[in-house]
Design brief:
Number of strands: 26
Largest sheet: 5 strands, antiparallel
Number of helices: 21
Length: 684
């Protein structure tokens, strides 16, 4: 220390601090540091995180800032000169200390009261910085104050306060931008390089600020767009018109793509030239997917209405054709020895086979359009799958191995078991066709729940508990374009004559009509999985309902049947069939006429009515009116497709007897025989 201070004598006093040549070096250094600190023009203090002064220098500026002779151990905010105007400044200083203690560097203006009525107010420019220890923790707050170069008048003070408010507003805006997570908000310089980055940009695009600032924004575009110069055209358009807005695919850090809505605003400098751009990006992938699902649902609904109407009219025509052909077949059978009877029989058989194929086609159309009549019963899906194993093996052949994975404790569903078997068989056949060289078919069942976030993406789907039935194959898979159209009727990738394109559409319509949901997952050369979600049965039924296997009773020849049908051809065909079976027939074309006949003809033993009737009274209303006077009279409904009068929520109402068009002699005879045998009149 003597080498450092050769110019001083044995003793030196500066501002009351004595320096001795023989003092320990550490003490001498502390005293020199204190002298240097006190000689500073600025007032400097070391504060604890709560604002208590731990150490400070002693100079004239500090004396003007606070009247306290000894600041150490006191709150700096409380040490400000007493004044009615000081309360706001004390609070502002406390908040500034808290922000600095949280890691922020804060600038604050502290105006003092004027010395006299005509004097300007002295203003202290202060800065508060966090002081960290070696571990990076904030240990202290460093407070530094300097007097402004010029005393400020009242107008200047107001201008300064406005500037401070503007600065605070800018800081709040920055905090607001940084807190937005649904939008990527960032700035570009005039050449398109990123200069700022908010939290929303990091969430949407995947880059941290330190990874992307200084990089060109074109990296967010797909390679195709980059090759076509899209990023350059976006900036040129924004620079030319002041604004650009558009949508397209963008690329995240991990390489995945998202559909983005982009808004770019040009930032113009004082000279009128573009100095940068403000860019806002929003991820609309989910919204786009929902809109696509809605458009697909609307398209399928429109196609369903069209096909349902065609199938209804076609079923009426087929009823006439099949009824007439079967009548002719019965006649030919009575003349087996007549010349050419064999040829006639062959012609009739061929015509009937064609009519049956047409009837099956209309059933598939009705299934897709969700207008088929479902006879839903409590069903154990696992047991149903197990019962089809032999049929599936015979159908698929030895080249396809079948594996079933059934979950334990599988819930029951309320479903038309026959239609579910048909749907499963359709899926299995489609899977077989996708594996021409052989492969593996996996049928899996499980309980699952669909939550609100999932069902919100699909129109008409409700959250809740479902039984999942999945059919997976190891086949060739489907491209994206084929996958999007896979459930449309008549769409098929098979050669002409090798597929109707109604398999998946039938499954889709049946499951939707049953209140369920269908999802298809497929990758080219990897295979396909079709998942059916069927609503869980929540009622009291615990046992599966069994089919009626009783022998068909003999026809009650001579009983009188009232046939109500507005289509004259169908009415005539049905009447001929009933008379051929030995029944007496009374006919009506509408509900009012039928109701009058029931009152006039007590010999009528069964009402056979179409559901859709003209004149303001449908078949269900007619049945209700008849039962008011003849409660014992059995009613058999017929229809070309499911009507809301007897079908609700896709299921046949309880207690309803229905014979769907087109029906055959055998189906009509069996249905009538059972109903008349069970009727109260037959037991008396």
């Amino acid at each position: 220390m003597k080498r450092l201070l050769p110019h001083i004598g044995e003793r030196l006093v500066i501002r009351g601090t004595e320096l001795h040549q023989g003092e320990p070096p550490e003490l001498m250094q502390n005293k020199l540091a204190r002298i240097a600190l006190d000689e500073m023009s600025a007032f400097v203090a070391l504060l604890s995180p709560d604002g208590t002064v731990l150490e400070c220098n002693r100079n004239e500026l500090g004396a003007r800032l606070t009247p306290l002779a000894e600041l150490t151990g006191h709150s700096l905010a409380d040490a400000l000169p007493p004044s009615t105007e000081r309360s706001e400044m004390r609070e502002a200083l406390r908040q500034a200390v808290a922000r600095a203690a949280a890691g922020e560097t804060v600038s604050l203006d502290l105006p003092l009261p004027p010395a006299g009525p005509n004097d300007a107010s002295p203003v202290f420019d202060t800065t508060l910085r966090p002081a960290r220890d070696d571990a990076g923790r904030i240990a202290f707050v460093l407070f530094e104050a300097r007097e402004a170069a010029q005393p400020r008048s009242a107008d200047a003070r107001r201008g300064h306060e406005a500037s401070a408010q503007l600065k605070e507003s800018e800081q709040r805006f920055r905090l607001l931008v940084d807190s937005v997570v649904d939008y990527a908000i960032f700035m570009l310089d005039a050449d398109g390089y990123v200069t700022s980055w908010n939290a929303g940009a990091q969430r949407i695009k995947g880059y941290r600020a330190d990874e992307i600032i200084g990089q060109h924004f074109s990296r967010f575009y797909t390679p195709e767009d980059q090759r076509n110069g899209v990023p350059r055209s976006v900036l040129s358009s924004a620079a030319r018109t002041g604004k650009f807005e558009g949508e397209g695919w963008r690329v995240r850090k991990d390489g995945s793509r998202f559909w983005a809505n982009v808004l770019v605003d040009a930032i113009v400098g004082p000279e009128g030239d573009v100095i940068g751009f403000a860019k806002v990006t929003r991820d609309l992938t989910e919204k786009r997917n929902v809109e696509a699902q809605l458009r697909q649902s609307q398209k399928m609904e429109a196609i369903g209405q069209l096909t349902g109407g065609i199938a209804h009219d076609f079923n009426n025509l087929l009823q006439v054709v099949i009824g007439s052909l079967e009548g002719l077949q019965r006649r030919v059978g009575n003349f087996e020895q007549a010349p050419q009877s064999a040829d006639m029989q062959r012609f009739v058989d061929n015509a009937l086979r064609g009519a049956e194929r047409a009837a099956n086609l209309t059933r598939r159309l009705l299934a897709f359009s969700r207008r088929q009549t479902l006879d839903a019963k409590p069903t154990d899906v696992g047991r149903l799958v197990g019962g089809m194993s032999d049929l599936l093996r015979r159908t698929l052949g030895e080249a396809i191995s079948i594996e079933a994975v059934n979950a334990a404790g599988l819930w029951r569903v309320l479903i038309d078991a026959n239609q579910l078997e048909s749907a499963l068989l359709n899926l299995a056949v489609n899977a077989r066709d996708a594996m021409p060289g052989g492969g593996k078919l996996i049928i899996e069942t499980a309980n699952c729940s669909l939550d609100e976030s999932y069902v919100s993406r699909f129109d008409g789907l409700e959250a809740g508990q479902y039984v999942m039935l999945a059919v997976s194959d190891t086949g060739m898979g489907m491209t994206k374009d084929v996958l999007e159209r896979s459930m449309e009727p008549f769409f098929t990738t098979k050669e002409i004559g090798h597929g109707t394109g109604l398999g998946l559409s039938q499954v889709y319509g049946f499951v939707k009509q049953s209140g369920g949901h269908v999802r298809i997952y497929s990758e080219v050369d990897e295979g396909t999985t079709v998942k059916l979600f069927l609503p869980r049965l929540t009622g009291d039924a615990v046992e599966d309902e069994q089919a009626d296997h009783r022998p068909v009773p003999a026809s009650r020849v001579g009983e009188t049947i009232l046939v109500v049908e507005d289509d004259e051809s169908v009415r005539t065909s049905t009447t001929d069939m009933l008379r051929e079976l030995g029944y007496r027939v009374v006919t009506a074309a509408d509900g009012a006429s039928a109701l009058r006949l029931v009152g006039e003809r007590p010999e009528i033993r069964l009402l056979f009515t179409d559901v859709g009737l003209p004149g303001g009274m449908n078949g269900r209303q007619l049945a209700d009116a008849v039962r008011a006077s003849r409660p014992e009279l059995p009613v058999l409904f017929t229809t070309g497709y499911a009507r809301n009068a007897i079908v609700h929520h896709g299921r046949l109402d309880p207690g309803i007897n229905l014979l769907s068009k087109p029906f055959t002699y055998a189906e009509l005879a069996n249905k009538l025989s059972r109903m008349l045998a069970d009727a109260p009149q037959a037991r008396r």
